[in-house]
Amino acid sequence: MMPLLNVERLSKSFGDHQVLKSIDLTVASGDVTCIVGPSGSGKSTLLRCLNYLEVPTSGAIYLQGEPVGVRWRGDKLLRMSFNELCVQRQKMGMVFQGFHLFPHKTALENIIEAPVIVRGKSKAEATDEAFHLLDKVGLRDRANYYPKQLSGGQQQRVAIARSLAMQPTLMLFDEPTSALDPELVGEVLAVMRQLAEEGMTMVVVTHEMAFARDVADHLVFMDGGIVVEAGDPRDVLTNPQHGRTRTFLARVL
Ligand code: ADP
Ligand code: MG
Questions:
Q1: Cα–Cα distance between 209 and 207 in angstroms, integer?
Q2: Is residue 77 predicted with pLDDT exceeding 90?
Q3: What tens digit of pLDDT does each residue of 209-238 get?
Q4: Ligand 1, closest atom to CA 174?
Q5: Which of 17, 45, 206 to mutate to test the pocket of ligand 1 (most atoms within 8 A of CB)?
Q6: Residue 12 near ligand 1, beta carbon < 6 Å
Q7: Is 250 exposed, middle or buried (0-12, 13-18, 19+ CB in 10 A)?
Q8: Is 39 in the pocket of ligand 1 (CB under 6 A)?
């Protein structure tokens, strides 16, 4: 079967600093892939390249077989127009470490914004769906709260609901719990675990090793812009093959 996401020899440089060095990555539909690795290893850059927030220097990304960020015109591969890119990006929901909610909009208004403005849905239909999503993340009773009236964990759950409102094919998470007080991490991971159980395809950059071990189908260890080691999380975590993986795990486990 065709993988949902296929990354081939992806490289990214900033000036003469090569941050990603020929990354290969395959994600099957419904799978959860966790990416771990030391700070500065290129995890965020990889995630941002996947939806073309960063333009790769070389290599290719395919989502459901379609090249990301570029398209064929005749026998030439051209960069997509901004509008084409926006349409493609809607297939990839992204959740960041900081929650990036619109501060002057309530939880409900944050969630219905894109479906109404971008998709042209009626406010009534978008609101119905938003309440369904608020239920899913356990925040129906917070619909009319503003971000500053919510805890970090609640804000991140609203951010997840907001991404889901665009019905993405793939969800990308960049350290979604790293900015949270420790007691709030669990509620966000619980929502992500539930999403995974419902079959959402997810790529998750995280330092939460228990989540990676229990939820991920595939664990990728990155260091210095390369995939050092990847495989079943239980294998990688209990029996790492590379010294760099062992050194990293000894520090975080
Ligand atoms: P990680 O998420 O694993 O901590 P990043 O992908 O954020 O790593 O960063 C990897 C490297 O790329 C770092 O050395 C960082 O300084 C560099 N980098 C990231 N973004 C930029 C940018 N926009 N311009 C220049 N260097 C960058
Ligand atoms: Mg990062």
A1: 6
A2: no
A3: 999 999 999 999 999 999 999 999 999 999
A4: 2
A5: 45
A6: no
A7: exposed
A8: yes
Ligand whose nearest atom lies closest to the CA of 97:
2
Q: Letter for the amino acid at 150? A: L
pTM for the model: 0.97
Per residue in 5-39, pLDDT (tens digit) is 999 999 999 999 999 999 999 999 999 999 999 99
Structure tokens at 154: 């609640």
In short, whether 44's Cβ falls inside 6 Å of ligand 1 is yes
Atom of ligand 1 nearest to the CA of 225: 10
Exposure of 1 by Cβ count < 10 A (0-12 exposed, 13-18 middle, 19+ buried)?
Answer: exposed
Cα distances (angstroms) measured from residue 168 to each of 4, 114, 163, 165, 185: 12, 12, 7, 8, 23
What pLDDT band is residue 253 in, cutting at 50, 70 and 90?
A: confident
3-state secondary structure 185-203: HHHHHHHHHHHHHCCCEEE
Ligand 1 contact via 42 beta carbon (within 6 Å) = yes
